[in-house]
């Protein structure tokens, strides 16, 4: 035992030395912290796959290091974007919706004044359910509103939503329990869902007119249209689409809101429903026939161009014809190419900022 | 006691025998048997879940260690890859991966035709969907490293796309492809024929263990290697900070500090910190290390600092426990023959407590190695682990991920092939954790002294 103890003392001494040298190395490397040399991107989880594809190809084809792409949602990304200017803030925010005036103001307050807006293309939002589940094959915005709205129009009256099954309000739909998994409020997708589905459905069912007729202002009526029921039939998903997919896997009656690209990667488990009679494909989204689509953006801090190496090159490469064009890898993954790509390219070339 | 005094039944009277079970003894024996059965049941249930979990991990994760490769000869035409013929890598770098793609597609078509495999597509180049989109980058890197290869025909071992790979692993079926726009069933027919012709094989894939992360469009290329290095650097930071600070704090608190309200307060706080959810340390790290101290985002150094904060209470508590376990007689003997207090601690108490301290440290490190939540807030989760660090400073400061963060990231991605890789990553992480825990057990068995 005695020998064990002395052995341990010996070991401990060498260990202390090792620790001390490791500490020294850490200290030296911390002081040697040079300027950041890779682009930092964060934001929308819908844009993340595209950004990662671009970042990978950018690292392969340029002498700059591969950019770092984090997700977290459009709002979270823009919030970090607006934290200020400097090396320990991100350079690019991905967003699946346009930046809000409120966010531009917050940015300006933190010193982020010159923002370059880049539209990379369009994305469709699909309503998908289990491949072998009930036959949810065709929806109208009105159906989604009747199923999920907090207050709906029933027999000419605005009442709390008590529909339990899809067939309760539309006999063409299956008699299955209503269960929907929709993106949480930190996702840009939620906003598109509210505007293009809930509000459209609210107007189509006449609930909007009834609300206005009952003395609500137009803004209040629109807000009321966007609020979803809170009795557990509509579930907010704050995570990514994989979480929505897992919820649908566990719930045969579940309807989930997905981006088209995610659905196309999981066609072995999911089926989509048409919206207003139109099937979601890149062609119908590009032509504007499919009603629930939205542009995807990223925002660049102009103050970081020239400071962070490769930032402008990354932005230019992202929307180059090679990447974002109709035959590029982004389109292959599911992005609907922007017909006005050339003008966006020119705008980045000139570093045009938002007004 | 109560059994005896309360017992007035005739059976327990004088005539009873030790060899004959009374009703009460039977009841007590039955109670004991029941308790044993509950215990065995509890262990059996635990074992069942463990086996279910392990078999799920292994059956889902093992395929990640294998990958389908395509071996073809690629003709590298000078007219496309080096127009000026100078073999100058800087000049040749102007031909991007988009320029290499048709070269590889042509090579694949030529290879198929040479084997007599029919291509049933209207556009012959559609057959290239069999290959991973990483192929052009792989060929380009090779050519730029050896410019003299241009003009020759070179054999390349390229990755097959994730869906072809999934077909050989049983994940993708022809029926499922009917609804999939990424690949057609005809591609699988070609793949089957390529296997017969020896152009395609599914083998062990070391790149999964040592490689870098890949983008969403090419799961077949993704590996956990870079994030493993990220984890390694974080553990270096944790070990080199948490161990000395933790041990110094515990020695002071245990051996030198006076017993008063202040030390009581500190003690309570340490116990509380050990129970704080790890995400809180992430918020703290974001505020202190990134926003205040301006350390770089996504850096293993910051990750290590955050995990140090998280591990410190664990190390302090276990160190104090092992210091307490050293009997006072050792200290008294040392002091009695004239050692100073510090000598008694460093010459006698600390060496005897060392096995316990190291065990606690290793368990703390294992806990830190498996931690994901705080890393979310300091930017270590995402498409990050794409470059292998090229030195010690770069290892600490360049953006990197960690193994559990990489697994979480893979589990979130759309392509089902990433799901398989997440399980594969779990196997590797579990191997690390098991090794660390086994070392801790061995240390304890080998060196720990009971008093």
UniProtKB/TrEMBL annotation, chain A:
Leader sequence segment: 1-32
Pfam entry (one): PBP_like_2
Domain PBP, chain residue ranges per copy: 29-322
Domain of life of the organism encoding this protein: Bacteria
Keywords: Signal
InterPro entries documented for this protein: PBP_domain (IPR024370), Phosphate_ABC_transporter (IPR050811)
The protein's name: Phosphate ABC transporter substrate-binding protein, PhoT family (TC 3.A.1.7.1)
Annotated organism of origin: Celeribacter neptunius
Higher taxonomy: Bacteria, Pseudomonadati, Pseudomonadota, Alphaproteobacteria, Rhodobacterales
From TrEMBL, chain B:
Annotated GO CC locations: plasma membrane
Key words of the record: Cell membrane, Membrane, Transmembrane, Transmembrane helix, Transport
UniProt membrane topology term: Multi-pass membrane protein
Transmembrane segments: 37-58, 232-253, 273-293, 299-317, 349-370, 422-443
The keyword Transport appears for this protein: yes
Compartments where found: Cell inner membrane; Cell membrane
GO MF annotation list: phosphate transmembrane transporter activity
Keyword Iron-sulfur: no
PANTHER family: PHOSPHATE TRANSPORT SYSTEM PERMEASE PROTEIN PSTA (PTHR43470:SF5), PHOSPHATE TRANSPORT SYSTEM PERMEASE PROTEIN PSTA-RELATED (PTHR43470)
Entry similarity comment: Belongs to the binding-protein-dependent transport system permease family. CysTW subfamily.
Protein name: Phosphate transport system permease protein PstA
Lineage, top ranks: Bacteria, Pseudomonadati, Pseudomonadota, Alphaproteobacteria, Rhodobacterales
């Amino acid at each position: 035992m005695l020998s064990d103890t002395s052995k341990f003392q010996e070991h401990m001494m060498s260990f202390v030395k090792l620790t001390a040298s490791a500490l020294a190395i850490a200290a030296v490397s911390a002081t040697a912290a040079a300027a950041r040399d890779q682009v930092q991107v964060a934001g929308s989880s819908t844009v993340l796959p595209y950004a990662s594809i671009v970042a990978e190809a950018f690292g392969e084809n340029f002498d700059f290091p591969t950019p770092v792409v984090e997700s977290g949602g459009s709002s979270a990304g823009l919030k970090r974007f607006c934290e200020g200017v400097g090396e320990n803030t991100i350079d690019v925010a991905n967003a699946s919706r346009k930046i809000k005036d409120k966010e531009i103001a917050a940015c300006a307050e933190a010193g982020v004044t010159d923002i370059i807006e880049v539209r990379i293309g369009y994305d469709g939002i699909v309503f998908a359910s289990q491949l072998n589940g009930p036959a949810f094959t065709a929806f109208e915005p009105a159906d989604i509103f009747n199923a999920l709205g907090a207050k709906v129009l029933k027999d000419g009256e605005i009442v709390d939503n008590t529909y339990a099954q899809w067939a309760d309000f539309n006999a063409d739909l299956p008699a299955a329990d209503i269960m929907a998994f929709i993106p949480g409020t930190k996702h840009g997708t939620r906003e598109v869902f509210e505007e293009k589905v809930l509000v459209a459905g609210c107007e189509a069912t006449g609930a909007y007119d009834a609300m206005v007729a009952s003395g609500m202002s137009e803004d209040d009526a629109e807000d009321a249209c966007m609020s979803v029921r809170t009795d557990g039939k509509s579930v907010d998903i704050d995570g990514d689409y994989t979480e929505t997919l897992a919820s649908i896997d566990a719930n045969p009656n579940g309807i989930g809101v997905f981006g088209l690209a995610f659905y196309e990667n999981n066609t072995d488990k999911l089926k989509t429903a048409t919206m207003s009679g139109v099937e979601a494909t890149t062609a119908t989204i590009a032509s504007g026939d499919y009603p629930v689509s939205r542009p995807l953006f990223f925002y660049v801090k102009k103050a970081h161009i020239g400071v962070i190496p490769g930032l402008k090159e990354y932005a230019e490469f992202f929307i180059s014809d090679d990447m974002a064009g109709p035959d590029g890898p982004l389109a292959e993954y599911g992005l609907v190419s922007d017909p006005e790509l050339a003008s966006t390219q020119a705008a980045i070339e000139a570093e045009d900022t938002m007004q | 006691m109560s059994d005896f005094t309360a017992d007035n039944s005739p059976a327990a009277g004088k005539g009873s025998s030790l060899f004959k079970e009374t009703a009460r003894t039977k009841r007590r024996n039955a109670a004991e048997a029941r308790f044993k059965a509950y215990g065995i049941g509890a262990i059996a249930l635990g074992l069942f879940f463990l086996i279910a979990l392990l078999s799920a991990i292994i059956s889902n994760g093992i395929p990640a260690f294998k990958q389908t490769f395509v071996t073809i000869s690629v003709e590298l035409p000078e007219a496309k890859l080096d127009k000026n013929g100078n073999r100058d890598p800087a000049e040749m770098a102007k031909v991007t991966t988009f320029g290499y793609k048709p070269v590889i597609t042509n090579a694949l078509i030529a290879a198929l035709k040479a084997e007599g495999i029919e291509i049933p597509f209207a556009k012959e180049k559609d057959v290239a969907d069999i290959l991973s989109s990483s192929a052009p980058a792989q060929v380009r890197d090779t050519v730029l490293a050896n410019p003299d290869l241009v003009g020759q025909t070179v054999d390349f071992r390229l990755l097959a796309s994730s869906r072809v790979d999934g077909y050989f692993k049983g994940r993708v079926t022809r029926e499922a492809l009917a609804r999939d726009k990424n690949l057609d069933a005809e591609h699988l027919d070609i793949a089957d024929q390529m296997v017969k012709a020896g152009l395609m094989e599914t083998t062990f894939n070391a790149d999964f263990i040592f490689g870098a992360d890949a983008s969403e469009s090419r799961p077949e290329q993704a590996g956990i290697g870079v994030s493993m290095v990220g984890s390694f650097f974080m553990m270096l930071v944790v070990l080199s900070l948490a161990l000395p600070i933790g041990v110094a704090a515990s020695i002071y608190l245990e051996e030198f500090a006076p017993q008063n309200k202040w030390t009581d307060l500190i003690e309570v706080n340490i116990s509380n910190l050990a129970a704080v959810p790890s995400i809180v340390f992430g918020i703290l790290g974001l505020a202190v290390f990134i926003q205040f101290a301006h350390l770089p985002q996504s850096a293993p150094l910051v990750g290590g600092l955050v995990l140090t904060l998280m591990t410190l209470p664990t190390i302090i508590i276990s160190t104090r426990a092992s210091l307490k376990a050293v009997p006072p007689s050792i200290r008294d003997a040392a002091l009695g023959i004239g050692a100073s207090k510090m000598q008694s601690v460093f010459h006698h108490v600390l060496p005897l407590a060392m096995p316990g301290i190291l065990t606690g440290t290793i368990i703390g490190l294992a806990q830190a190695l498996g931690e994901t939540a705080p890393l979310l807030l300091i930017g270590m989760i995402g498409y990050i682990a794409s470059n292998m660090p090229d030195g010690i400073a770069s290892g600490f400061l360049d953006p990197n991920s960690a193994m559990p963060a990489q697994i979480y990231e893979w589990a979130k991605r759309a392509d089902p092939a990433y799901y398989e890789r997440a399980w594969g990553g779990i196997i590797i992480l579990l191997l690390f954790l098991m090794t660390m825990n086994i070392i801790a057990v061995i240390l304890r068995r080998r060196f720990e002294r009971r008093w």
